[in-house]
Amino acid sequence: MAEKLLQVEGISRSFGDLQAVSDLTLQVRGGEIFGLMGPDGAGKTTLMRMVCGALLPDSGEINVNGVNMLRSPDKAREGLGYLSQRFSLYEDLTVLENLRFFAEVRGFDAKQWQPRTMEILEFVGLADFVNRRAGKLSGGMKQKLGLASALVHRPRLLLLDEPTGGVDPVTRQDFWQLLIRLVREENVGVLVSTPYMDEAVRCTYVGMMVNGELVLEGSPDQLLRNIKGQVLELHGSPLAEWRKLAAALPDVHDAQIFGNRLHLRVDAGKMRSVTRSLKQAGHQDDLHLYRIQAVDPILDDVFIDVLSKHLESSRLHANTGETHG
Q: For site-directed labelling of 6, which of 30, 192, 195, 240 has its Cα 20 to 30 A away?
């Protein structure tokens, strides 16, 4: 079995009355990509900052490559590469000068950083742009330079906090191809947070965070098996009205809009009756039904299901507290 490059055991962190991360445990091995998903405010960035040593947990342990981050932070960071949401390049410096700066900050001399820099620039596709100022790079090229800066010291573990936020789909695709190749060829471990479900599917494991807790964890296939019942996909207009109508049916457990379609989660034995009811409703003048069919669930369905259950549980606890208060 591959070596554990990251072990997080029961870490918690609060800011005043806000519990940002609560008793969270996870691990990442070499050759694995662990994807963190969750809504804004779930605690993903706080977790990342604690793992890289920028923020101290209130409790728990963090080990990077077998080194305790709390007791030996400098040594632990030697094997760690970190790319934050707001990675700042020195725009007046060239591509090569930026990497030289990050290498020298890590204590590399010229004999060490020069060959590694050219190797990593070749890997990310920037070898032909070594003399271009960072400020003149496209968004995708800046993203690749950020990745290169995180890799220049050959880290075993890579932390990426929403690295593809705000870039176009083609650039995101290119970035993930680089990441998968990196994991395969250099056997690094990656902890990455992402808001994109299509990126989560590429991960070895996915963890879903809600209100500072890791509420579900497993491979994408394992998570998809958590969905109870089956999914009906409806194409129609207006979609908001179809959602309201479908959600009112007793056999529909959940109705969510994903882009130009509606996903309905129903019991397997109720597919025909729900489909029949919706087709009958489609005869109304103000509703248009283009297509309705059974489909395989996607991670969006899992995420919405988990989030809905967690929020419902929170509401029940809050109401119970009010009742007994």
A: 195
